[in-house]
Amino acid sequence: MNKLNHVAFIMDGNGRWGKKKNKNRNSGHFAGVQTVKKIVEASIKLKIPTVTFFVFSTENWKRPKTEINFLFNLVNSYFKSELKNVIKNEIKINIIGELNKLPNKLKLVLKETIKKTKKNKKILVNLALNYGSKKELINTFKKIKVKKITENYVKNNLYTKNIPDPDILIRTGGKKRLSNFMLWQLAYSELYFLDKLWPDFKPSDLIKILKHFYKTKRNFGGI
To answer: Catalytic residue numbers?
Structure first.
């Protein structure tokens, strides 16, 4: 049976879900946060060591300012209200991406959350905020000061250094693309694309994918 260290999620479809329910896109983002909470709880029960959620990409700055502000306020208010529960449930929070462009109040909340959860060991939850894989790789190559670049040099200078690469990528929303997400880390991941919109994704969907994953033969280039 395959060993499972890390599951990554591209949470596509929040805005479409909101509009489909005759509401607005922001209602979909709010519902999406509730799904994240359920999936983290399920991941703890399923003993998944690491999960990563693609929250906001470097390309998402093209969206309307009102939607961007709502997303940032949503993340901000969630950690302000839920930090005690996050600590109680032994969840370690890590942020990957370029935080310098984020609003100051959000940066402060994220830094406090990282600091107060750094000793937690039940599960590591990575949130990809202002994240773009191409930018990550460019920044990585800038850090490397050796003439001969090896895979290990690259891996040890990524945002995800010391974190196992995802064994599974799950993308909801019906699109079959990576959208500039963890291009290096997903080299040998098992990819699952679902038509369900993210707010409709349930722990039972995750369990179904895990059952398939455990039966899958993984060759990593071999036979």
So the answer is: 12, 60
